[in-house]
Design brief:
With 492 residues, the protein is of the alpha/beta class. The chain is built from eleven helices and 23 strands.
């Protein structure tokens, strides 16, 4: 129910982004971008910088991207920023919209408008003690740390939510398992990135100094730690997750064993239904293409695996580059002062980016694995062909493969690895087939006869062409039993 607010927020972001760019007159770009304390920007400000520091005043909105950004001065309007790390210590007259790895509102940060919101899609979002969000907080990412005050509701989707301040409205959250230890490995990975960030353990934590005047509703694999003051009893919705091997080995009670077995079977059923549905639709809509992809998979399985793995890994930076290029295009349109055309262009590029990413990952995650299921089912049934007969329906092959792989994909620990291998195999087979198809079309276009070239249709026209080169050692087809003195061409 609350998830729709995220999409509404994204839509509003795009709309305001396009409108503001169309009106922007001041541009700040380069390696080091700085607005001095005595400097005032009297219009909307578009930024494209490596390092952005705003110590002065911006009387309009701020839009753009930066590697690192600091807002220590005053911004009268809204802030729409894509950055690696953002620190806000000054005053904002409007809402803050942020996308990037880390964002922090420090103790001195202030949102002066009573209707100002904080919208963040970030690995870590922090509201320090003393900072206040007048209205709502909508965040998605790994963690949200609320040490300041929030005048409206809080909506969070991620792993860790920690509240040590005051929230006047409702709190709705989907968080991770507080018993998980994966944060250690993630923190080690973050040391390679040029950002100052410390991660907390997953789960919900409401500190002793926290207070929530609205209703607290959260979903998690395990109950949160709630020590603060709540106006009403929290609503906890448990999320059933698959146990790992150590938890399975520790099961001693029959009731626990039956519960874990039920979790495994439900997971396997979901995998089977999704793979079978996608595979059946593909066979129904593009049967010839599925057969061609299957031949490509069986002919070159190892190259397909490598190509699929490399392509899937490379897709993440490629999509980021495409998004940045789209921002540059919108930036160029804004400089041209094209009005509604900028809004339409921004919306079109946004839809194109989201559509391209959705189609690619749907193919990589669902269609590719369904193709692997079809290949496995055909391989198994061909081994048993002496017992099942010479002809096997392709849908039977698909169902057999989906059944076997659904069981394997649902196994703890190794299930995700097997699922990834199947996805890489199928994705690599699809890319290999497309590469061969386009190469064949390219070669065909090279050897294609020009439309202006025509062959003679009458004997008088044929006499002006040189005779064909014939092998004198043998007669060609049709040259036997010709009447004496017959000639195709005159000797003169």
């Amino acid at each position: 129910m609350h998830m729709s607010r995220v999409f509404v927020a994204v839509f509003v972001f795009l709309c305001f982004f396009g409108v503001s760019v169309a009106e922007a007159r001041d541009v700040l770009q380069g390696d080091q971008c700085k607005i001095a304390p005595t400097e005032t920007v009297r219009n909307d400000l578009f930024v494209l910088c490596r390092t952005l520091v705003i110590d002065g005043q911006v009387q309009g909105n701020i839009l753009g991207a930066a590697t690192t950004a600091e807002i220590n001065g005053t911004v009268d309007g809204d802030v729409y920023l894509l950055a690696g790390q953002l620190t806000v210590s000054g005053r904002l007259g409007g809402s803050l919209h942020f996308v990037g790895p880390a964002m922090e509102m420090s103790t001195t940060a202030e949102l002066s408008n009573d209707k100002a919101d904080l919208l963040s899609a970030s690995l870590s979002t922090t509201v320090a003690t003393g900072a206040r969000i007048p209205n709502s907080v909508i965040a998605a990412g790994y963690q949200l740390l609320l040490n300041g005050a929030v005048g409206g509701e809080v909506n969070f989707w991620g792993s860790a939510l920690q509240i040590d301040g005051a929230v006047a409205g409702d709190v709705t959250a989907d968080v991770g398992d507080s018993q998980s230890s994966g944060v250690t490995e993630l923190q080690t990975f973050l040391t390679l990135l040029p950002i100052d960030l410390t991660l907390v353990r997953p789960g919900l934590r409401v500190g002793e100094t926290a207070s929530i005047e609205g209703r607290l509703s959260y979903s998690a694999p395990s109950e949160g730690i709630i020590d603060g003051t709540l106006a009403s009893t929290p609503i906890y919705t448990p999320v059933i997750v698959q146990p790992d091997l150590t938890q399975i080995a520790a099961i001693t009670e029959p009731e626990d064993a039956s519960r874990e077995l039920g979790i495994f079977l439900r997971q396997a059923l979901r995998e089977f239904l999704s793979l079978a549905l996608v595979g059946a639709l593909a066979l129904l809509l593009i049967p010839g293409a599925m057969q061609a992809l299957l031949r490509s998979l069986t002919a070159r399985p190892l190259p397909s695996l490598g190509l699929g793995l490399v392509t899937f890994i490379a897709s993440f930076p490629v999509l980021v580059i495409i998004a940045l290029l789209s921002l540059l295009v919108i930036f160029a349109l804004g400089l041209l002062q094209l009005g509604d055309f900028t809004l339409a262009g921004g919306a079109l590029l946004g839809v194109a980016n989201v559509g391209f990413a959705s189609v690619f990952y749907f193919i990589a995650i669902f269609v590719a694995r369904a193709l692997a299921c079809l290949g496995l089912g055909r391989f198994i049934l061909r081994l048993l062909r002496s017992r099942t007969g010479p002809n096997i329906n392709v849908y039977v092959e698909l169902l057999v493969g989906c059944f076997l792989l659904a069981l394997l994909f649902s196994l703890p620990v190794i299930g995700w690895l097997l699922s990834a291998v199947a996805a890489f195999l199928g994705l690599g087979a699809i890319l290999t087939h497309l590469q061969g198809y386009f190469e064949a079309r390219r070669r065909l276009s090279i050897v294609r006869i020009s439309p202006s070239t025509s062959l003679p249709s009458r004997s008088e026209e044929a006499r002006h062409y040189p005779p064909p080169m014939l092998d004198s050692g043998s007669n060609g087809p049709g040259m036997d039993n010709l009447p004496p003195g017959f000639q195709w061409w005159d000797d003169n």
